[in-house]
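Worked example

This section walks through a single chain of length 127. The input is the sequence exactly as stored; nothing has been trimmed or padded.
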Amino acid sequence: MSNLLRKKTGFSLVEVIVALIVLGLAASGMMAPFIMGRENVNLASRRIDALNLAIERIEDLKGKVGIPGITPGRIAPDELAAGAHGPNPVGGDLAAFGGQRKYTIQDNIAGTNLKQVTLTVTWNEPQ
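Given that input, the structure is written out below as C-alpha coordinates.
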Protein backbone atom coordinates (compact mmCIF):
# COMPACT_ATOMS: atom_id res chain seq x y z
CA MET A 1 0.00 0.00 0.00
CA SER A 2 2.87 2.40 0.68
CA ASN A 3 4.12 1.91 -2.92
CA LEU A 4 0.77 3.06 -4.26
CA LEU A 5 0.90 6.26 -2.23
CA ARG A 6 4.40 7.09 -3.40
CA LYS A 7 3.64 6.66 -7.09
CA LYS A 8 2.53 10.10 -8.33
CA THR A 9 1.40 11.02 -11.79
CA GLY A 10 1.10 14.49 -13.41
CA PHE A 11 3.19 17.62 -13.12
CA SER A 12 4.10 19.70 -10.12
CA LEU A 13 3.12 23.35 -9.90
CA VAL A 14 6.75 24.44 -10.43
CA GLU A 15 7.01 22.40 -13.63
CA VAL A 16 3.80 23.93 -14.96
CA ILE A 17 4.98 27.48 -14.20
CA VAL A 18 8.37 26.89 -15.84
CA ALA A 19 6.67 25.42 -18.91
CA LEU A 20 4.36 28.45 -19.17
CA ILE A 21 7.32 30.83 -18.92
CA VAL A 22 9.21 28.99 -21.67
CA LEU A 23 6.09 28.91 -23.85
CA GLY A 24 5.49 32.64 -23.27
CA LEU A 25 9.06 33.52 -24.27
CA ALA A 26 8.82 31.41 -27.41
CA ALA A 27 5.46 32.94 -28.36
CA SER A 28 6.71 36.51 -27.85
CA GLY A 29 9.71 35.77 -30.06
CA MET A 30 7.41 34.49 -32.78
CA MET A 31 5.20 37.61 -32.64
CA ALA A 32 7.96 40.07 -33.70
CA PRO A 33 7.87 39.09 -37.39
CA PHE A 34 4.09 39.48 -37.45
CA ILE A 35 4.29 42.96 -35.95
CA MET A 36 7.00 44.02 -38.43
CA GLY A 37 4.99 42.51 -41.27
CA ARG A 38 1.96 44.55 -40.29
CA GLU A 39 4.02 47.75 -40.23
CA ASN A 40 5.43 46.94 -43.67
CA VAL A 41 1.93 46.35 -45.04
CA ASN A 42 0.80 49.73 -43.67
CA LEU A 43 3.81 51.47 -45.24
CA ALA A 44 3.16 49.76 -48.58
CA SER A 45 -0.46 50.88 -48.42
CA ARG A 46 0.58 54.51 -47.88
CA ARG A 47 3.07 54.27 -50.77
CA ILE A 48 0.33 52.93 -53.06
CA ASP A 49 -1.94 55.81 -51.99
CA ALA A 50 0.86 58.27 -52.80
CA LEU A 51 1.43 56.64 -56.19
CA ASN A 52 -2.27 56.83 -57.00
CA LEU A 53 -2.36 60.53 -56.02
CA ALA A 54 0.63 61.22 -58.28
CA ILE A 55 -0.90 59.31 -61.19
CA GLU A 56 -4.19 61.14 -60.67
CA ARG A 57 -2.53 64.57 -60.95
CA ILE A 58 -0.36 63.59 -63.94
CA GLU A 59 -3.39 62.20 -65.77
CA ASP A 60 -5.34 65.34 -64.90
CA LEU A 61 -2.59 67.51 -66.40
CA LYS A 62 -2.35 65.29 -69.48
CA GLY A 63 -6.10 65.42 -70.01
CA LYS A 64 -6.21 69.19 -69.70
CA VAL A 65 -3.46 69.76 -72.27
CA GLY A 66 -5.40 68.16 -75.11
CA ILE A 67 -4.08 66.75 -78.37
CA PRO A 68 -3.22 69.35 -81.03
CA GLY A 69 -5.65 69.13 -83.95
CA ILE A 70 -7.86 66.56 -82.17
CA THR A 71 -9.04 67.83 -78.78
CA PRO A 72 -8.74 71.35 -77.39
CA GLY A 73 -6.86 71.92 -74.16
CA ARG A 74 -8.79 73.06 -71.13
CA ILE A 75 -5.94 73.95 -68.82
CA ALA A 76 -5.29 77.27 -67.17
CA PRO A 77 -1.98 78.69 -68.40
CA ASP A 78 -0.52 78.90 -64.91
CA GLU A 79 -1.00 75.15 -64.31
CA LEU A 80 1.67 74.34 -66.89
CA ALA A 81 3.90 77.36 -66.29
CA ALA A 82 7.54 76.57 -65.57
CA GLY A 83 8.42 76.47 -61.89
CA ALA A 84 7.12 74.95 -58.67
CA HIS A 85 3.42 74.35 -58.04
CA GLY A 86 2.05 73.50 -54.62
CA PRO A 87 2.31 72.00 -52.09
CA ASN A 88 -1.37 71.17 -51.96
CA PRO A 89 -2.92 69.05 -49.19
CA VAL A 90 -4.21 65.68 -50.31
CA GLY A 91 -7.31 63.76 -49.34
CA GLY A 92 -7.80 60.10 -48.64
CA ASP A 93 -5.79 58.05 -46.19
CA LEU A 94 -2.67 60.22 -46.52
CA ALA A 95 -4.55 63.28 -45.23
CA ALA A 96 -4.28 61.81 -41.72
CA PHE A 97 -0.48 61.82 -42.10
CA GLY A 98 -0.20 65.41 -43.37
CA GLY A 99 0.08 64.34 -47.01
CA GLN A 100 0.98 66.97 -49.60
CA ARG A 101 1.41 66.92 -53.36
CA LYS A 102 3.58 69.32 -55.36
CA TYR A 103 4.98 69.38 -58.85
CA THR A 104 7.66 71.22 -60.79
CA ILE A 105 7.62 71.95 -64.51
CA GLN A 106 10.66 72.59 -66.71
CA ASP A 107 10.25 74.05 -70.20
CA ASN A 108 12.08 73.16 -73.42
CA ILE A 109 13.73 69.94 -72.32
CA ALA A 110 16.82 69.18 -74.44
CA GLY A 111 16.04 71.99 -76.89
CA THR A 112 12.57 70.66 -77.72
CA ASN A 113 9.14 72.11 -77.15
CA LEU A 114 8.51 69.50 -74.45
CA LYS A 115 7.93 70.01 -70.75
CA GLN A 116 9.16 67.83 -67.92
CA VAL A 117 6.82 67.39 -64.96
CA THR A 118 8.27 66.15 -61.67
CA LEU A 119 5.60 65.32 -59.10
CA THR A 120 6.27 64.57 -55.43
CA VAL A 121 3.87 63.28 -52.79
CA THR A 122 5.04 63.54 -49.17
CA TRP A 123 3.61 62.53 -45.80
CA ASN A 124 4.77 62.15 -42.20
CA GLU A 125 5.36 58.57 -41.10
CA PRO A 126 4.05 57.76 -37.61
CA GLN A 127 6.76 56.94 -35.10
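What to look for: The radius of gyration is 31 Å.
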